[in-house]
Amino acid sequence: MAQCVQSVQEFIQDSFVPMVAVLCSEDAEKVTRKNNLNFSELLRPFCRLTSEGHMRDPNNQVQVVKNLRISVNNVVTRPSVPASGVPGHAHRRLLSEVVLTCQPAEGGVANVITAGDYDLNISATTPWFEAYRESFLQSMPASDHEFLNHYLACLLVVSSSEAVPVEKFLKLSQEQHRIQHSGEYTNPKWFIPNTLKYYVLLHDMSQGDEQRADSVYEDMKQRYGAQGCYLLKVNSRTAAAGADEQIPDPWSQYLHKSSLQSQDQYEDPAPVVVNDTAVENNVGGTSEVDGHDSEEKDGVLVNSLDNTHPLQLDTPSDPPGSLDALRAVAVETKPPPVATGMAAATSHGACLTLNDHDRIRLFIQEFTFRGLLPHIEKNIRQLNDQLVSRKGLSRSLFSATKKWFGGGKVPEKSIAELKNTSGLLYPPEAPELQIRKMADLCFLVQLYDLAYSCYHTAKKDFLSDQAMLYAAGALEMAAVSAFLQVGAPRPYPAHYMDTAIQTYRDVSMNMVLAERCALLSAEVLKSQAKYSDAATLLIKMTSEDSDLRSALLLEQAAHCFINMRNPMVRKFAFHMILAGHRFSKAGQKRHALRCYCQAMQVYKGKGWSLAEDHINFTIGRQSFTLRQPENAVTAFRHILTNDKNPITTLKQPFHNVALPQLPLPCINSSATRVYFGHERRLAEGEKQAATHVSLDQEFDRDLAAMWQDLEEQVVAAAKRGVVPATFQPTQCCLNSQTDNLRFPLAVVEEPIIVEVVFRNPLKVPLVLSDLTLLWKFTLKDFNRPQPQEDSVGDVVAISNEKDARLKLLPHQTGQLNILGLVYNLASTSSTGDTTINTAEGTSVRGRQDLEIQGPRLNQTKEEKTSVSHGPDRRLDPTITPPMPLLEVFFLQFPTALLCGEIRKAYVEFCNVSRVTLCGLRVASTHPDFFTFGSSSLATPLTPLSPTSFENCSAYKTLATPPGVSGAGTGGKGVTEIPLGEGTLKPGESTQLPLWLRGPDQEGVHEIHFLFYYESAEKGGKIRVLRHTVFICASRSLSVRATACRSNTLPEEEERKEGRNSSMLVFVDVENINSSEAGVREFHIAQVSSSSKQWRLHKCINPAEDKESLFSLMPVFNFCFSVPSKAVEKYTFADLSLGNELIITSTTPCADFFFRRCQPLESLRLPVAMETQGRHSRSQGVGHGDGAKDIAGVVRKCNEVELDIIILWKAFVVEDNKQVILEGQLHVALQTIDKEACSMTQKEEAQEMVLLKFKPELPPPMTRPSMEQLSHLIKTNLHYPESYSHPFNQKSLCMVPVTLTLSNCSLAQVDVIIDLRHKTTSPESLEVHGSFTWLGQTQFKLQLRAQEVMRVQLRACFLHAGVYNLGTPRVFAKLADQGAMCETSQQTATPALIIIINST
Amino acid sequence: MEHTQSRDACWHSRHHSKMAVCIAVIAKENYPLYIRSVPVQNELKFHYTVHTSLDVVEEKISAVGKAMADQRELYLGLLYPTEDYKVYGYVTNSKVKFVIVVDSSNTSLRDNEIRSMFRKLHNSFTDVMCNPFYNPGDTIQSKAFDSMVSAMMVQAS
């Protein structure tokens, strides 16, 4: 329970005070009426006695009565609360009003309670509860089982202006007697039959004759005794004199409530007329009487009274949550009209001076000490005597009767049975009631010891009689008086209270009494710091019948929890919520809101989001109904943003429009994307624009890296091979994954598009309209003055779905900051067309800031240990001066190609800016895919219409000089685009032919182009344009080629030309396109070669017809002889199989060949080094660089650098038309006797790469393999094919054989020829006849590089037959490698000789 | 706030056969790691109930002296009965709280059963903690834990 102003003792004492009734004559009423008070009201501020009184107890001991208060009330004959114990409607409303008007002061003192990790701001006092309690206890109905609030005395008041005051006194006295004894009225109740009558003569100083009053008083003293009457002189101030004098008004604090109370006590609007003589006394409400009096002069007051009719004012408690409650609340929140009426009309006590106040005080004191206390004392003594005398007899008598008639034992009776007896009523004079009466009297005059013993006795009696209600009453008071006893001889019997409450509630069904009991008990428990018990007690008292009571008690229970030694914060919060709920049900919205707010402190930010949301929602709703929209917004915003970080609402002073920050819809600010660039034409007729970047594309990290790589390549190419240190890749579209650390660049007059992603967390559709961007612009000049333009930007809403795209067009250079969004927010009233509804429905214009948190920093140690975020400059573009802007269009660009197919397309470059551009380059992921024609030649050759050149061979349209091809100009994948003069002027466009060659691998290829260009102005910035195409490649031909060393020796004349060897190239062409329906047949049009050493010589074609049809024969063999030729330049040799010869070197064919070679070149790097080594040696510089060289030398002799180019034509049926497609395939021959295929790359690609965890071992190249070494020397046997010999003449046949040795390598080679060597291979053993070599059988020779040596041998045959002469074994080793073993050289093919017997 | 309707017997009787009506895991810092309740429409109420029960848990823990804290039994027993429910508590050594709310009308549940439920809950919770991908302090989103809780909340066998 919260702290109270009063102490417990004071509180209990004040709860039970002697009651004094007032009966007043009409004239006396008029006297007091001058002060806007009736008589009882006049006395009320002075009812607490400041001095001590004395009285004797029955044992004649003098007892001090301290701080006594009496209660003076008009006689009201209607019960304020029905006897049933259920408070009436008016009564409830009174209490509700009391609570409602008592609100916590704004900014009132709040205690900070720290419990665990909670710091709570809680108001320590709850004045509304005390106010409620006070009015509740004051309005307790008098009941029969107790006498505490029965009237003890009656003041009979008569004015001195009365003609015969004594007669009037008599009349009033009779009236009192009639009310008490006639049995006509059950209310009010009187304590004792002979009520003390105290006669008061009221004298108006301003009017009446004081002398006369004094004489009447003297008369009265004679008649009633000096202690039974009093002359009260009031109204000593004249109305005129008192105008400027300030007199304290002690009534205001009492009267506001009481006026309400007295008015409310009439449920029936009809005035209660008891009797013509007693009308005035029964009219309780001042204002009502006042209204009658002042009807003419004060119309406002009358009106207000009419309005404040009790039933009209009635505001039903609204169902919580109904927004309609707003109207009702508006009425409620107004100050009660009665009060206004009162305040406006009156100030109380206008005719009273301070002297008069003192007189009244004195009167009360006189009355109490001289009249009331002796009266009570006398009665206590009487009752005591009565009881003592009756005690022995009655007790036994009662118990005896009980035994005779009752039979069984009492305490075992069940509650159900007890209920039946609860209705038991004692007659007023029953001895049990006398004890109780005496106890009550003692209690009222603070004789608590005596009271306790009496209550205790009474309790026993009542219990034995099963008079449960009576017993409960006695128990309650026994407990209270036990508590109040001075020095506390016995502990407070809390169980008495519990029993009493339970009995009141369950047996008597009297909630009012139960509540009173609970309030008392709780207060007592609180004073003993038994908070837990108090809380339990209070919570038990909550019930469905009264929301207000439940709310107040729950709130007190909550305070109990927080005041415990170990504060139970969560219980506090929970009960506060329950209290708030009940308050709101009771219509006490402010109190409800306060409760929820207090509870919120506990739930806030602790992770209990469901509860937190609920409280926030309730707070929001309550605030809304209480017309506190700001608080409502705050609360509701919490719900919406609960899952996120607390948003920092920054107030930006430079906004001239102070629009409210809207919490809805949620903006996913990190998902905001910003696009810099103009709107490009996507297509123009048959032209197809470069894809570039658009907002519709998803961000792909790999792709972005790829583009960056391309850009680096192209920049490196443009800056002569060096990427500048300041290089930063261009970013056209910024999102959360891009690098946003730098201020992005935007170009003047090029739009900036901002895409904002909205999320609606509600299930209610929201309609946004009139979206605009909020931005700030700082003008900045770059080098030269800019023309001042009035408009800096305009904003257009583009879409309105989940993401909105807003466009901003800068007209000046400077720094732009995009700050937020402004929009109209409305919710759809129906599911109908939203666009219509927005116009009709109410909408709010507000803004939301776009604040993007940068990525978390994680570089330094500080950054790693703390959470800090980098900047995100996505929304802060710098507007730069104009830059060139390129648009690229493609014409006749295919989407599907055969592998190796050559297709011609056109590309158009268009400068749409006002700045000249230059340095146009393109980088691509597939540089072998395309090649450009020359612009100078292209212009006249550009077809007038694409169709006219449809069937024209790509090879014939243009003869590009070989030097033009960009292969040599830049980096790997960068091509300079041959523009006419190297620049493109504003508005100019150029069309270039573009040859495409289908990729060698089938499948879909994603090919990226990055066009690079820069401003022609000095220091011009670079820009890029991206393009991506997808090409579907399907299989065409597969070409396999093998090179073999020819065994024939070169002809003499050829040798002179420097050709010292020749090779055979076998080419197998296979149609692997069988599945393709469209392709009917392939023709091999031409075979070309490209090599620095070799050229195709002639076709040794076994097939008869020259034009071979592959459609019929899937695999086809060619055989070409390739004479060697040592030239340092690539030479093209063409062998046409068809009718026309295509000069390979001057067609795109060569371009593609070179482009295709480039990647291979890099693979061949070690070879290239070797080539250089060879050159140096041939110049005789020396050859001492050791073992490393050997491998190369050895390998060299096995190597051929020969590329075969197959040009083919395919006849394809497309749309019932035959189309001839052309294409070319490349086969690179590298090693003799090794098959190379046009599709090898693919196979290589499929090879698995082993994971290697160790550094690679040095390549084993230093030691050439046996196989490689076996190719050093080429051997050849020269002999006659058949030889006739007459064996019968000469038994020995000698045949001269020449063994030609030719050194293939480029180094000196030691050769050993062994003729005697017998092969161990089984095939050579088979030879029937053997022959022998004659003469020298072993030779040791040394061959210089590429030297040819002939050795003359003689073979000797004994028989005719066929012999294989290929037996000589040749071993070779490199001359300078002494340590090396000779390696057996490859044998030549079997050399058969036929020896014929010529007889 | 549905508290006052709590004495409505309508769903009260319908669910009495369930073992537990609400199971909650509360972090050391007293924020919920996991709360699940069976009648979904009363979720808020259970949140309040569990939150309020923490006061009693703290009271019970603090009642055990510092020295005795190691020997303290993890199971706290009945925290408090409300009109419709019984709230049981369990505190691990790392001060993680488990709260099980049982329907008052379910008289078949003995103390032993509640204990074994808590043990199961504790084991499953330990498994969650052992998951290297679980970030201590995050709300529990483990399917295994979920299904274990579901098993305790469905029909008693």
Automatic annotation (TrEMBL), chain A:
Domain TPPC8 second Ig-like: 899-1023
Ranges where the TPPC8 first Ig-like domain occurs: 696-803
Disordered: annotated segments: 833-875
Gene Ontology cellular-component annotations: TRAPPIII protein complex
UniProt biased composition (Basic and acidic residues): 859-875
Domain annotation TPPC8 third Ig-like: ranges: 1028-1227
Superkingdom to which the source organism belongs: Eukaryota
Start and end residues of each TPPC8 C-terminal Ig-like domain: 1272-1374
PANTHER family recorded: TRAFFICKING PROTEIN PARTICLE COMPLEX SUBUNIT 8, TRANSPORT PROTEIN TRAPP
Entry protein name: Trafficking protein particle complex subunit 8
Native source species: Hucho hucho (huchen)
Phylogenetic lineage: Eukaryota, Metazoa, Chordata, Craniata, Vertebrata
TrEMBL record, chain B:
Pfam families: Sedlin_N
Any single biological process term in GO: endoplasmic reticulum to Golgi vesicle-mediated transport
A Gene Ontology term for the protein's cellular component: endoplasmic reticulum
InterPro entries reported for this sequence: Longin-like_dom_sf (IPR011012), Sedlin (IPR006722), TRAPPC2L (IPR044760)
Transcription regulation among keywords: no
Keywords: Cytoplasm, Endoplasmic reticulum, ER-Golgi transport, Golgi apparatus, Transport
Superkingdom as given in the UniProt entry: Eukaryota
Compartment(s) where it occurs, according to its Swiss-Prot or TrEMBL record: Cytoplasm, Perinuclear region; Endoplasmic reticulum; Golgi apparatus
Family note: Belongs to the TRAPP small subunits family. Sedlin subfamily.
Stated name of the protein: Trafficking protein particle complex subunit 2-like protein
